Amino acid sequence: MIKKFTLALSFILAVSIILDANYNIAHTNGAGAPPGRTGNPGELSGASCDLTGCHTGGLSVTDETVSVSSTIPSNGYNPGQTYTITVTMNNPGGTKFGFEISPQSNTGSLIGTLSNAGAGAQLIGSSKYVTHTIAGTSGSGSKSWTFDWTAPAIGTGNVTFWGAYNFANGNNAATGDVIVNDTYIVQEALVSINEIGTLSEGFSIYPNPAVDKVNVAFHINSPENVSIELLSVDGKLVSEFTNEYLLSGEHKFNFDVSTINAGIYFVKVLEGNNSHIKKVMIK
Questions:
Q1: Residue among 56, 46, 69 nearest 168 (CA)
Q2: CATH placement of domain 193-282
Q3: CB atoms within 10 A of CB 74
Q4: Which end of the chain is more exposed for a tag (fewer CB within 10 A), N or C?
């Protein structure tokens, strides 16, 4: 009799542990998705909230929609600048929402810097991801979160924000939820030399690599105010070489870079509202 009671008690405890573990998984995810669940194929084999057993059994996506917006200008981000990103989920009648998003390369590397997660959001995974908090899942038909993103170095190009979004049914379990994967792509605000207008020909930097001196040469077709700047790889101003009014024609400048630390930099020529950037190495 004692043996039977012991077996029965062991069975009850085992079931309780399993149920408690399942509840804790659902409850923990309610407090934020685990790192690496954005659906990026270059990270964790493309793991997402529906492909790793986190949430299953959802209905077909019908009225559920996701939108990502930002303060990035329509012509693209400027390297080193910080912008606010807003994630909005809509589901008529829905009351529980969750998400995870991260700006990454196709191999899963973070691009730029995430910061200032707003109400109901948090940074996780060494600030590589933004996800919801336990207090930030409730909504009435929709839910929004905000965070800041500082753009990467010049020449990075298009950046993809990979995201997984959970339209939850609020049953504190991993079943009956709808997962939507989506991407938000932003472009870099770089202008090619063919699009510059009056700065139309002969833009060159030499020698490159430069040691003590660097020459910047270009041609403008009409009189214009021209500035020439040296930028760091994260887009910050290192030195303003010159800022003056120039007549049309050929122009050549020679600048002292002997006091500049060795490394990769960018020379930016700005004439009027038009600009062009070229890379230079200083030894």
A1: 56
A2: 2.60.40.150
A3: 6
A4: N
